[in-house]
Amino acid sequence: PAEPCGDTLPQEELSHAAVSFEHAAFSYQNGETVLRDACFSAMPGELVALTGPSGEGKTTMLRLLLGLIRPQQGTAELVCGENSYPLSAETRSAFAYVPQGNSMFAGTIRENLLLTNPSAGQQLLEQALRTACAYDFVMELPGGLDYTVGGRGKGLSEGQAQRLAIARALLRGAPILLLDEATSALDEATEQQLLYNLMNSGLVHTCIFVTHRPAATTICRRRFRVADGTVREEAACSE
């Protein structure tokens, strides 16, 4: 594997970026072994689900993807065509991340969205909102994009705040989107529409979707289960 040069990866490679874990293992300093044999991949154009019980390693998988930690055995790489790079701080530009919980800040909806892309114009803002199933409710609010919310999204429902957080992540322009239980407050129909929109928007190439909800995985191309220290692909999901 090569190390990326400078602070970012070659931009021309990112549209073809994939991720690959081969027998990755990780233990925390307290001696707890979380992953001992993680095999995982997500290719361009795929919506991939990560499922499994709480506390079994899904958060550790996300930390590895974001380069916050590195595997102590095996490999975890970003694959860009013929080149591969160990996942690290320098590969983080390939990812946009939506965490669990409310991540809205006090200010207008427009200001919240522009945090990841201050130069985004009205057309791109509206495209991101439509993709995240947020456009209609935003336009119904007093002032629309200039509606002011309080800290932690006060003035919005949890589901509305989740959709806006996803729209904001899309504006970052990263090819791989990581959703960490980021649609848990949505009804099943809205969740499935949002996931369909994501993969047909042109704003993201690959989506890795952490969820506890079995119904949410039916739209996924592939599904991996994290349990007992391993990560293994399950039966293929429907197209």
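That was protein one. Protein two is written in the same sequence-then-structure order:
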Amino acid sequence: AWAVVAIALLAFAARAFGLDRQFLWWDEGLSVYLANQPLPAMFDEMQTTHYTDPPVYNLALSGWRLLAGNTPYAVRFFSVLAGMATVALAWTVGRRLTNQTTALLAAMFVALSPMQVHFSREAKGYAFAAAFALLSVYAWGCRLGYSGDRLHSDSRSRWWAVYVLSTLAAVGTHYYVGLLVLWQGLWV
């Protein structure tokens, strides 16, 4: 347990330290701008500007900014939380599929991956999409049973709901996550 906590603390430090040292850059500013619009105006603005990302992240950021505010630190911290969830889910999925050592290595790689750290420090939906994609993988495995687990029908329907909602959130954040659904379909 201490190793998981140490990895989580290391991941948090890498993501949260100096989060507001730089101004928001163009795409981050656009995400915050859209999140500050009323819902109909957000969709009109997305259509007018030919905004190419799906709306789920901007909708979630809209709710988050009501709780935390619009400062660069506050809007980027939403991605830090998603990045931390990705680290935890990497350990959870790794533990479910393999063993403790491999799960710790997976969590460590996600915690320190320069790309993961970078995207967990931006007010963009990449960390959000990664977290929901991993939740989708975990729910997919629980729904089908990674190791032949026998789940009660109530538990199976709950995991089915988690799978559908997490997959919709992931694909609704970034279209490329649709490839995950394709992979899952091919696996079946």
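The mean pLDDT is 92. Keep this in mind for the problem set.
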